Amino acid sequence: MSVENSAFIAASADVADDARIQDGAKVWHLAQVREGVEIGKRTVVGRGAYIGTGVRVGADSKIQNYALVYEPAVVEGGVFVGPAAVLTNDTYPRAIAPDGSQKSADDWDAVGVTLKRGASVGARAVCVAPVTVGQWAMVAAGSVVVKDVPDYALVAGVPARQLGWVGPAGRKLQADGHQWVCPETGQRFVERNGHLEMGERHGL
After folding, report:
1. Domain boundaries defined on the chain
2. Can you give 55-90 as a three-state secondary structure string?
3. 3 pLDDT exceeds 90?
4. What is the pLDDT of residues 84-95, one digit of tens each?
């Protein structure tokens, strides 16, 4: 494996020989990092987490304890994947074929979940591939995501539905006339055709 300076791998972690662990990243106890994986700078992979073959995890992300990130997931930088969250990869999961024979890896086409920059997936949430969770979007704990989540959207439930908007600080945005504003940072946003766009900073 390729381990850059100041990266840390716990002795009990199972990291493939050709995985690349970049500078400042940490892979904790009992985590499994499969072949061809790249873990970005300063990213943390928690205890018992699983990162599937060939997955690239961007810098400054957090894959929390026992999260399952199945290939071919795409995890951009600054992403949070909560404890025991699951990113699936099989649209029609079966252990056996109609004739009763056991299915193998060659009997299906893997599809992936994409988590865009700054997105958060809460504890025990499930993202059913193929879906994309947009930039800075937030999936509430225990939700089941079955369709794409727009940038900045807050979704919750089974199946997940949009409850509002969130900013990069993670706080729910508040309506202010025709705009939305973050109560923590003062950042303003404009909604157009069901999508949110960053506006001007206010009061800071």
Report:
1. 2-167, 168-204
2. CEECCCCEECCCCEECCCCEECCCCEECCCCEECCC
3. no
4. 999 999 998 999
pLDDT of 112 strictly over 50: yes
Please tell me the distance from the alpha carbon of residue 188 to that of residue 43, in angstroms, as a whole number. 29
Six-digit token pair at 180?
A: 């939305």
Rounded Cα–Cα distance for residues 82 and 68 (Å): 10
CA 120 to chain centre: 6
CATH class name, domain 2-167: mainly beta
Q: What is the CA radius of gyration of the chain?
A: 18
Q: 177: which residues sit within 8 A by CB, 6+ positions away?
A: none
How is the beta sheet containing 144-145 ordered, strand by strand?
Answer: 14-15, 32-33, 50-51, 68-69, 86-87, 126-127, 144-145
Model-level pTM? 0.93
- The predicted-structure confidence for 24-69, as pLDDT tens digits, reads as follows 999 999 999 999 999 999 999 999 999 999 999 999 999 999 999 9
